[in-house]
Specification:
Protein name: AAA family ATPase
CATH architecture of the largest domain: 3-Layer(aba) Sandwich
Largest sheet: 9 strands, mixed
CATH class of the largest domain: Alpha Beta
Number of domains: 3
CATH superfamily of the largest domain: P-loop containing nucleotide triphosphate hydrolases
Number of strands: 18
Number of helices: 11
Strand content: 15-25%
CATH topology of the largest domain: Rossmann fold
Helix content: 25-40%
InterPro entries: P-loop_NTPase
Length: 376
């Protein structure tokens, strides 16, 4: 194919435009013998040509679809909601391969767990029990791949590394490098980082600097954190969120009765990857099988079901609630339970629903507020 004339002249080659192929547009051609980086002022630098010519390896998923190599994630929840159960499950799945909650680690990889508070006996019990909750888990691979560095495993005079301190950061990075870890799980922020005021943006700078150093080292990180007083987001300054590709919140479901309170609804506060059917609000519970083994269970979130039902009812296309539920693929029982929960949550009233369904039966349009919101 004949190459059209250059549309611009760069210092080390030509900027050319090919006839519309896929997305069309400008393509910068690599030149033979051109290096893909250089050092200036003590820093590695690249021209645009060098950047586009460099064969970066594809970042592989550590736990598909949640986390890829070199990415960072915050996992927050209220005390007792189950965040440590989830972070330990992630560490085990990635270290031994396998899946839970629909998230899969195809290849076992080296992981370092940095724990700031849990008693060693509790850590031992949880890890032993959780092995059974990971489908396709390879215990032999995980036995060597998962390195545990715990505060409660140290002597009383040992100074444990501080994520907010340069010396502590250097010690942690050195352990990560020695183990060859591709993932650091840090549980949790409050016990691992000494900052004067979590609500002050400036206080987050040392921790952000450490997270960015991990990225430079191509090491992924899961930082476990507590929620704020409302339980609806993470605690502290919003500046902490800047470096994370993923922020997953767990809002406690006290009525679900999970093992040691591990029952929650997932809330994806931030996610930079591709959409996936597991990356939606789900009601999750850690329970036990009849044999006594731990087992994770996830269902579509009830609050999401309420939203779906109310949106369907608001169309005015259904003469009764059973028909509205059937349009969502639900049976009468699920529909009835969802309506009951919607009313109990104050999202609608029985009278409002009856008026909507009556209007549908009479062939009348349902009035919708000017804002476009359903009338409940």
């Amino acid at each position: 194919m004949e190459v059209p004339p250059a549309t611009a002249d760069l210092t080390s080659g030509r900027l050319v435009k090919f006839p519309a192929a896929d997305a069309g547009g400008a393509i910068i051609l690599p030149r033979a013998g051109v290096t893909t980086s250089r050092r200036q002022g003590g820093l590695k630098t690249r021209t645009l040509r060098e950047l586009l010519a460099h064969p970066f390896p594809t970042r592989q998923p550590l736990l598909f679809p949640v986390l890829r190599q070199g990415e960072s994630m915050m996992l927050w929840a209220q005390t007792g909601a189950g965040k440590t159960w989830v972070s330990l499950s992630m560490a085990l799945a990635i270290a031994g391969g396998g899946s839970f909650l629909g998230w899969t680690a195809e290849t076992p990889r080296r992981v370092m767990l940095l724990d700031g508070e849990m008693a060693m006996e509790d850590l031992q019990d949880r890890l032993r029990d959780l092995c059974a909750a990971i489908d396709g888990f390879d215990p032999e691979a995980a036995a060597d791949n998962l390195l545990i560095v715990a505060r409660q495993d140290q002597g009383a005079d040992t100074v444990f590394p501080d994520l907010a301190n340069p010396d502590g950061q250097a010690r942690i990075l050195e352990m990560v490098r020695q183990h060859g870890a591709e993932l650091l799980v840090a549980d949790n922020f409050s016990t691992l980082a000494e900052v004067e005021d979590e609500n002050a943006a400036g206080a987050m700078n040392p921790v952000l600097a450490f997270l960015l150093r991990l990225k430079q080292a191509r090491v992924a990180c899961i930082l476990v954190h507590h929620s704020g007083k409302t339980g609806q987001s993470y605690r502290g300054s919003s500046k902490l969120a800047a470096t994370f590709e993923v922020i997953l919140g767990l809002t406690r479901d006290e009525a679900a009765g999970g093992v040691q309170g591990a029952a929650f609804t997932t809330f994806w506060e931030k996610f930079r990857g591709e959409p996936h059917d597991t990356l939606v609000p789900r009601d999750v519970r850690l329970g036990r099988s009849e044999a006594g083994a731990l087992a994770w269970d996830a269902q579509p979130a009830e609050r999401d079901n309420i939203r779906l039902f109310l949106e369907a009812a608001a169309t005015g296309n259904f003469p009764h609630q059973t028909a509205a539920g059937a349009s969502l693929g639900w049976d009468k029982t699920k529909t009835s339970k969802t309506v009951t929960k919607a009313i109990a949550a104050g999202r609608t009233t029985r009278r409002q629903l009856d008026e909507i369904f009556e209007a549908a039966r009479e062939g009348c349009a349902v009035e919708v507020a000017e804002s476009g919101e359903p009338p409940f």
